[in-house]
Amino acid sequence: MVEPEALSNQTTKEETNMQAIRLTGPCEASALKPVEVPKPEAKAGFDVVQVKAFRVNESEVTSRKGESDGDFQYPRILGIEGTGVIDTPAADSPYQRGQKVAMMMDGLGRAIDGSYAEYCLVPHAAMIPLETDLDWDLVGALPEMLQTIYGSLNKGLNLTAGDTVLIRGGSSTVGLMSIGLAKMLGATVLATTRSQAKVAKLTAMGADHVLIDDGHIAAQVHDLLPEGVDKALELVGTTTLTDTFGAVKPAGKLCFTGGLGGGWEIEHFSPFMIPSGKFLTSYAGEAQDLPAKIFNQVLAEAKAGKLSVPIAKVYHGLSEVGEAQANLESGHFVGKHVVVLD
Question: Which residues of 125-134 are buried (b: 16+ CB within 10 A; e: fewer)?
Fold first, then answer.
C-alpha cells in the first residue's frame, strides 16, 4: 500500500522530471539512451514546449562525436529543432498554452539544451506559430530545412515570381524541397542530379528542367537559356562554384548555402574569382528569417498534395534516436529522419 505522503511525493517527482537524451561526453550512436532529468521551468523570454517530433541532423551527429565548435559543451541535451505544443508559457510569452509551434536554432542543442527530450525550454525568438492538423512526423521534418531553403531563396537570392533559378544539388533532400518551394514562389526551376534514376523524382517535385551533372553543367543551362539563369542556389559546394557561376546571366546572383560535395572553402581565394558583373552571397540565418505565413503556406500545400516532404524514415520514441542517428550517418537513405514522441 502506498501511503498518502508517498503518493504525493511520487506525483511530484513524475511532474518535475522527464526523459531526454543527455550526453556527458562523446559516444557512439548506440549509446544514445533516454535518461531521467529535471523538467525545465518557464522563465522570462522562454517557454516550456512539449516536444512532439524532431528531425535528426548532421550537426547533432557531429556534436555527439565531440567534433562541434566551441559553442557546444557537455553535458548537453541534443536537438537543434523540433515541433510541439506550448506546455508552460512564461509571463511575457506571446504564445498560449496548447498552441502548436516549431522551434529551431538560437542555441538549441548547442549553447542550451535542445529537443531530444519530452520537454524543451525554448527562447521566444526561436519559435514559429503553426496552424495545421497534419501528422507530427511530416511537420517535424520541416523547421530547420525550410528555414535554410526559404532564407536562401528569399534573403540570399531575393527570388521573385518569374525568375529562372538553378538548384545545383537538386536530388539532395534540401535540394528537393528547394525545388518545391521555388515553384511555390513562382519561379522556373532548373535542377541538377548526378543520377539519371533520380530525374523522375526531381520532376515530380516540380523541376521544369532536370540536368545530369557531370561537374560541368553551364553549357547545358545555356542550351536551354542562352543568357543563363537569373539566379542559382549552390548546394554542392565550392568544387562546382565556378561552373555554377558560368550558368548565371550577367547581373545574376549566386547564393552559396551547402557543401554536399565536401567543399566549404576556396584555397587562396581572391575576389577576382567572382565573375565581373555577377553577384555572390551566402546564407546561414536564423528562425526569424522564416515567416510564420510561409511555414503555414508550405504546410497547407503539403496537405493539399501540391508539395511533398522527403522523409526517409519515421522513428517512435526517444529510445530510437540512436537508430535514427546511425541511419543518417550511414548515408544509405534519401530523405529526412524524424523522431515522433507518441
Answer: ebbbebebee
C-alpha atoms less than 13 angstroms from C-alpha of 213 in its C-beta half-sphere: 26
Cell of 129: 506559430
Task: Flag whether 302 is in a domain.
Answer: no
Helix and strand tally (H, E) in the chain?
Answer: 10, 17
Q: Are residues 86 and 138 in the same domain?
A: yes
pLDDT band at 40 (very low <50, low <70, confident <90, very high): very high
Contact 309, 142 (CB under 8 A): yes
Grid cell at residue 306: 501540391
Distance CA 269, CA 272 (A): 9
Q: Assess whether pLDDT exceeds 80 at residue 3.
A: no
pTM exceeds 0.85? yes
150/277 same-domain check: yes
**Same domain, yes or no: 282 and 151:** yes
Domain range enclosing 122: 18-142+311-340
